[in-house]
Amino acid sequence: MKKKLLPALIIIGLIVLVSGIIGVSALIKKYTPTKETKDLGEYFNISSEDEAALIVDNTVSDHKAKIIDGNIYVDYNFVHDSLNSRFYWDANENVLLYTTATDIISAAADSNTYTVTKQSNDFGYPIVKATSDSALIALDFVKQYSNITYTSYDDPSRIVITADWTKVKTATVSKATQIRVKGGIKSPILKQATKDDPVTILETGDNWDKVATEDGIVGYIKSKNLSDSKETKLENPDYTEETFSHIKKDSDVCLAWHQVTSKSANSKVASVISSTKGVNVMSPTWFYLNDNNGNIADIASKDYVSYCHSQNIEVWGLFSNLENTDVDAAYVLTHTSTRTTLINQIMSAAFNYELDGVNIDFENLTQEAYGDSYIEFIRELAIKCHNNGISLSVDVTVPASYNKFFNRADMANFADYVVIMGYDEHYNGSDAGSVASLPWVTTGVTDTLKEVPADQIILGMPLYTRIWELTPKEDDDTVSDSEDQSQYNISSAVYGMDAAAAQVSGNGATASFDEESGQNFAEWSVGTTLYRVWLEDSTSLEQRLKLVSDNKLAGAAFWKLGFENSTIWDTVIKYLD
To answer: What is the model's pTM?
Structure first.
């Protein structure tokens, strides 16, 4: 019996032994760090010998640098979005532009030379190369005008760029270890880290921290293998921050837009001014873009300017893109040659009529059509204006998602004033509502202040309103809910202050203050048609003038003379001096 049991016991023992060995092997495998290394060429997604990875502020970019004749080139879109948005590539005429506070720098495609205003300079090798859909710019040329540093590394080729000079969290490696693709000992190794290697800590975890090395490796390291972290302020000793100067008035700006539709209308300037108080800037609507070559039309008058000057009033001529609907303003601005013609025409008009300032009122702009051409236009025009002692103001709509491309922050660098067009909240074709309710205007001011200094902001205010006509839709003469505007056909007409007030009283209505809009409001019915109006008057104007005062803005502007009630000027001079 014992002899029969012995083989069975041996077999069972062997099974237990083998199972134990397998279990121990599994445990050893589970807890033994992998020695697998990640191919860095694959990690950086480098597909050819003339490519180099780009690591910007410890983030691996999807863009790649190109190595051409030993020189590093980077894509224009990468430069614009990651390094310096002031570079402007004109793909229509194959020219690269950059504006400083005082100069316009330009370089033609495939040229070794570039001009700084009118002075020619030799860069030594081609500065920019046009591609089918963009351009490649020499990184050293970008660095020449940008607050960046870079270091290049081999095996594989990569460029490590610093463009963000804020504080970072740094540490050193406390013992030799590995930096891995992900947090965990089974993740492939990116780099062997040695004691005292410096790293930047990007994220901290319970056991693993995400770090970046000086040579551009971004991965994970065991937290216990790092020294205590500290905040480090990055600095670029080779870069000097630009300073921008501005031409500004010593007093509050009180600007009145004067719509002039013919040369003969200029003769009325004395009577127009005599009905105002406190106005120190007149902005007549004299000039507009008149063809696709960048030429302008004008109905200006030297006598008008002379009279204003005799009254200690400056003249900021308004230049518009609205009058000639056959002109493609986007074409003019996106071609450097025609944009330059337009700027030269503006400056010629300013000289000829002895203007104190230029007021740019280009509207209906879209990012798709204009891109960065509008802000480039403002930059280039500002330099010409400032070189000749002429003030530049730019009219802009309130900030919204669709007009972020205006780049108000850079606009404020170059232009002297940014004028918020604080009106047309509701417009012909929209639902019925205020032209400029107080909450809407307040938000517009608050959002603009995030990009533009207060002493460069002029708040534009309407001297007009709209009377809204709400007619029940066809076959629906009864409206179940008068607040549901979808039940109406809606139209509106523009009225000046006195004309709107006359409509209210003439229809037996009484206006009362509406807390929500910060305005006097009235409504009445004629048959089944409902009329509504949010009045513009001294009450509404005072609410906005308080915004100017409370936020220490540069002043106010009013559209347009002739729409106002004469009493509003007593309110204006209470707040502007």
So the answer is: 0.93
Q: Positive or negative CA dihedral for 183, 188, 191, 195? A: positive
Closest by alpha carbon to 372, among 130, 54, 99, 64? 99
Closest alpha carbon to 562 in 462, 438, 437, 458:
462
E-only strand ranges, 417-538: 417-421, 457-462, 464-472, 488-496, 512-514, 519-526, 529-534
Instruction: Convert 230-263 into a string of H (helix), E (strand) and C (coil).
Output: EEEECCCCCCCCCCCCCCCCCCCEEEEEECCCCH
CB 361 within 8 A of CB 319: yes
Task: Write out the DSSP string of 81-100.
Answer: III-TT-EEETTTTEEEEE-
- Token pair 């970072």: residue: 168
| Interacting residues of 28 by C-beta distance below 8 A, sequence separation 6+ | none
163, 150 contact by CB (below 8 A): no
**Of all helices (H) and strands (E), which one includes residue 557?**
strand 555-559
CA dist list (Å): 334 to 85, 94, 291, 374: 16, 11, 14, 8
pLDDT, tens digit, for every residue of 54-79? 999 999 999 999 999 999 999 999 99
Between CA 30 and CA 26 the distance in angstroms is 6
pLDDT of residue 24: 47
Confidence of residue 483 (pLDDT cuts 50, 70, 90): confident
Task: Identify which of 312, 380, 441 has the alpha carbon closest to the alpha carbon of residue 106.
Answer: 380
pLDDT digits (tens, 9 = 90+) for 32-50: 899 999 999 999 999 999 9
